[in-house]
Amino acid sequence: MQEINYKMMLVTLAFGVIIWFLPVPEGVKPEAWHLLAIFLGTILGIILKAASMGTMSMIAIATVALSGVLAPGDPGKSISLALSSFGDKVIWLIGISFFIARGFIKTGLGSRIAYLFIRVFGRSSLGLGYGLGLADLVLAPAIPSNTARGGGIIYPIMKSMALNFGSVPEQPETHRKLGAYLTLNSYNINLITSAMFLTGTASNPMCQKFAADLGIHISWMSWMWAAIVPGIISLIAVPYILYKIYPPEIKSTNGATKMATEKLKEMGAVTRNEWLMLTAFFVLLFLWITGDLFKIDATTTAFIGLVFLLISRVLTWEDVKSEKGAWDTIVWFSALVMMGSALNQLGLIPWFSNLVKAKIGGMSWTMAFPIIILVYYYSHYLFASATAHVASMYAALLGVGVAVGIPPMLLALSLGFCGGIFGTLTHYGHGPAPVFFGSTFVDVKDWWSRGFILSIVFLIIWMGIGGLWWKVIGIY
């Protein structure tokens, strides 16, 4: 795949120019409207794959600085503001967490955890689904790249299990033996664990940042506490529901436990670096959970974890430098957060919120809430990136909802959770989707049809049962 698709780049440029030169609506600052043109053009470029997210972000930063939309008439301040988000603590939380995640892969601890669960639960295909899911759940808090977690740790193990029971990618008639079920199950479990933790996927801290811009404070613990009940119910329900609506032909998988036992024997005793990685993991979890009590924020905790791994030589500086996914995320994350936050500061998000509020008149928040959730959730069919979806719609819909009276924390968290679970809809809807879909065990028709069914299941669990839980804990 070429780095630049010039045809799509021209479409992106034309779209941005058109927005730029449209009449500025009454009540909107010209610089806010022009920044919106740059922002929407960047999002469209990402959706159309005109270039990589990093390249599109560099173009956006350069355009913001050159146009002076953030500081008219002051070139020096303009470039400083364009680069301002590179110092944001939320950006570094997600970046450093990527480095920490490298420790799980480098030491082999992630694979060991997965095989341990398979050895316990892998006597049936359903148990195997639960075992892989539990491994993902354990790894999720400290591995914010769900692509690295799902594609780098869970997927290779899942595929080897499928091959071991006769599901061969090149032989379509064998896919339903076990491979198809495990593929959809592992992918959807990955989405659930992504939604359960603030550090479960890269787009979650972006939601936290946009919510903070509107005065809504979400901590690591408050996110996890709100997600724990709908998350656990989803983890229990999804493997069983898929087992019924997309059943594997093979029910008994005793060989999986034997295979896991053999793999663990090959790995040998737990190494020094694995013990150190496990220690770092528990320290991170403890400080993230008790951060509010000890006045240690999540980013400081991430720095503590990284420093521990560097000093103990679990990771080297070469490992940190070579973690391309982390540096890539820091770049595009910074650009999108910079523009999203600036749109709010320039008054565009409040203007849009008040405009929508005036249009929908006296609608009660209990009616507006499900409408906003459904629009946000099912519009994901249009997006090939959860990050692009969150960047383009989260802040705007949150502002609209708060303006019509929806309890701010309720809406902020609900939209945040959707950022994980709406990935079930398509085979391109989230980072790990291309990896799992690339196994060829599941065709597009089956992926979309089962995904739509699961989308309804997720909404019932998260917005229905979850809504009752949130009432109990005082979120609204």
TrEMBL record:
Gene Ontology CC: membrane
Domain of life from the UniProt record: Bacteria
Annotated membrane topology: Multi-pass membrane protein
Protein keywords: Membrane, Transmembrane, Transmembrane helix
Keyword Transmembrane helix: yes
Subcellular location: Membrane
TM helices/strands, residue ranges: 7-25, 31-48, 223-243, 275-294, 300-317, 329-352, 364-383, 395-428, 448-470
Recorded family membership: Belongs to the SLC13A/DASS transporter (TC 2.A.47) family. DIT1 subfamily.
PANTHER family per record: DICARBOXYLATE TRANSPORTER 2.1, CHLOROPLASTIC (PTHR42826)
Name of the protein this chain belongs to: Divalent anion:Na+ symporter, DASS family
Organism annotation: Pedobacter caeni
